[in-house]
Amino acid sequence: MSSPLWYVLGFAFAGFTFVFMTIGMSWLITHRHKGDRHKGMPYESGIDTMGDTWGRFGLSFYIYALLFVAFDIEIVFITLWALVFQDLLLGGFLSMILFVAILLVGLGYAWRKGVLTWK
Amino acid sequence: MTALSRPWNRLSLAGKIILPLVAVLIALNITLVVLWMSGLLPFLVQAILDTLGANIAILRFLLAATIILLITVPVAFMNIFFEMKLIAFVNLRIGPNRIGPWGTLASVIHGLKVLAKEDFTPRGVDVPVFTLAPAVVYLASVMTLLVVPFAPGLHGYDMDIGLLYFFAISGLGVVGLMMAGWSSFNKYSLLGGLRAAAGMISYELPLILAVMGIVLLSGTLNLNTIVQNQSGSFLDWYIFQQPLGALIFFIAATAEGSRPPFDLTEADSEIVAGFATEYSGMRFGFFFFAEYVNMFILSAMTAVLFLGGWNAPLDLAPIANALGIATPIDIALDPGSMGPGLLWLVLLAPPLIVGGLTAVIWMLKSDWSIIVSAIVAFVLFNLLVGGGVMLLLAMGIDWVMGLVWFLGKTIGLSLFFVLMRATLPRVRIDQLMGFAWKWLVPAALVNIFVTAAAIVVLHEIGRPL
Questions:
Q1: Which pLDDT belongs to residue B413?
Q2: Are B271 and B366 spatial neighbours (Cβ–Cβ below 8 Å)?
Q3: Mutation to test the A interface, candidates B184, B191, B445, B463, most A Cβ within 10 Å
Q4: Of these four, A3, A78, B334, B338, which has the most CB atoms within 10 Å of its CB?
């Protein structure tokens, strides 16, 4: 029971209970009306919705997500490296420089290609 | 259903809250009376006490979960009040001043208003995802409070990977925002959700990389140990060893909490309310509840990591000992140490303070006679002295002062967040994304390698950390 996993899972459960109890309480004390068909329309500045909503959107979001994955893996390694760095010292320092340099080449390539500039 | 719902809907808000409460209370009373009459109550109480005694771990968990979930409510109300009042002062307005002293209860009324609003589900939305999204966003922010060290020995769970846990859980907020944006069946919501995701994942990198300097120096991910490493004077705080890291962390935290000037996710001039456009009622309320709790948590993390957490800026006890002066705690515990000063304190201070208070009250309240003023002043003086003694005794317990320092630093940083909202204009989306990738990430990497190089050099010249 005192393991961290139980704490985290139990706390998540307690939080879910809190959220849905509050929403349920608000559901009990509020007025609800079905309304006409205009009430349920998506709010797009007062104009009837046009075209497909769940359709295409900008490609740049994908590229940021890809870059994020690359750097997030790097963070996993850097965290562990930083944790034991006081024992590694010079050797660890040089190898991490090499590792980050390879990644920075990738970032530089993306920068050069103009990916980092929002279009 | 309609036969029941019609009289129910006709009730006022107070009636709707009181009626179920009365029913629950009557049921509780009947149960208690039945138990008492049948003589089962003592056995039941004993059984409950035994169970609790045997399960201290479960009891501690329940207490921690309840307290952490419940303190988010006053914390959010406090931040909303700061935002209303402080921005009003910056704009040379008065701000809320009707409900409660200085309008302090205005945010509570706002919360009750959101609770009483209609919670409407528009046509075309993906209902399960739409309903789950606010819960995910709220949980992603509130679950990080589990590892925040509030005071010495006062924390939800002392986790060895506390820092990693914090970043892992707070990163889940992106999922909730994407769920809200995608399920809403609205183009503004979709754009808002995608912007939120792009912005938050971009600023998550500098946020974590900025803290790596601290991990390098302290060699641990445990937040309690990190705070203990900063004990001593304020010069031992990590902000003086990691100034660049602190700056990057604070900027990235502003963007992570989608606080102005980086609040592109809910830029009302561009995409209505972003991912929250289609939400109403309490499900909408939880998004903003989560935002204000997030503001508190990010301030708390900045305080814990860079400003020494619950450590006082100056440890006064050694200085007082060196000068031979008794600290307030010593005086409270041993009044005899004051010597002849105590005589003056007991004989002269009460009449002088009561007289002074009487004069002030008499001048302020022109319709009160001087005797009424004196009585009020005497009561006020007793309350002040009682409170002061209680405070001094409380200061003897270290976690009370720790909590005071921690909350002081956290609330100061929250006020700074609010001031940033009041003074800075919102940035453009291309500026936001470019700043994260072209400036903050390289700067954070430089910070890591400079710190690492410094550790290596210090070790080579024979003065390891």
A1: 93
A2: no
A3: B445
A4: A78
Q: Which domain holds residue B292?
A: 109-314+400-460
- For residue A79, being part of any structural domain is answered with yes
Q: What is the pLDDT of residue A2?
A: 60
Greater confidence (B423 vs A63) lies with B423
Looking at the complex, report in whole angstroms how far the Cα of residue A72 sits from the nearest Cα belonging to chain B: 7
Tally: H helices and E strands in chain B: 22, 0
Number of C-beta neighbours around residue B457 at 10 A? 11
pLDDT in tens, B183-223: 888 888 888 888 888 888 889 999 999 999 999 998 889 99
Cis bond upstream, residue B313 (ω within 30): no
CB–CB contact A93 B456 (8 Å): yes
**Domain for residue B368, yes or no?**
no
Q: What token pair was written down for B92?
A: 């040379």
Q: Closest by alpha carbon to B85, among B113, B115, B107?
A: B107
Per-residue pLDDT reduced to its tens digit, A40-96 = 777 777 777 777 777 777 777 788 888 888 888 888 889 999 999 888 888 888 988
Q: Residue B15 falls within a domain, yes or no?
A: no
ipTM: 0.88
Place of tokens 């289609």: B278
Contact predicate B296/B75, CB 8 Å: yes
Which residues 20-49 on chain B approach chain A with CB closer than 8 angstroms? 20
Q: How far apart are CA B304 and CA B298, in angstroms?
A: 10
Q: How far are the Cα atoms of A53, B134, B288 from residue B178, in angstroms, in the given order? A: 14, 11, 16
Please state the domain count of chain B. Answer: 1
Q: Flag whether residue B54 sits within 8 Å of chain A, measured between CB atoms.
A: no
In a domain, B40, yes or no: no
| Chain A, nearest residue to B21 by Cα | A25
The pLDDT value recorded for residue B331 is: 61
* B202 → chain A, closest CA residue: A68
The answer to whether B117 contacts chain A (CB < 8 Å) is yes
Residue A67 lies in a domain: yes
Q: How far is B73 from chain A (nearest CA, A)?
A: 11
CA atoms within 13 A on the CB side of A80: 5
Q: Is residue A19 part of a domain?
A: no
pLDDT in tens, B168-190: 998 888 899 888 888 888 888 88
Tell me, what's the pLDDT at B324?
Answer: 61
Q: Is residue B319 in some structural domain?
A: no
Give the one of A29, A60, A65 whose C-beta lies nearest to B116's C-beta: A29
Asked whether residue A36 is assigned to any structural domain, the reply reads: no
Query: How many domains does chain A divide into?
Result: 1
Report the distance separating Cα B391 and Cα B389, nearest Å: 5
- The residue segments making up the domain with residue A70 are 57-119
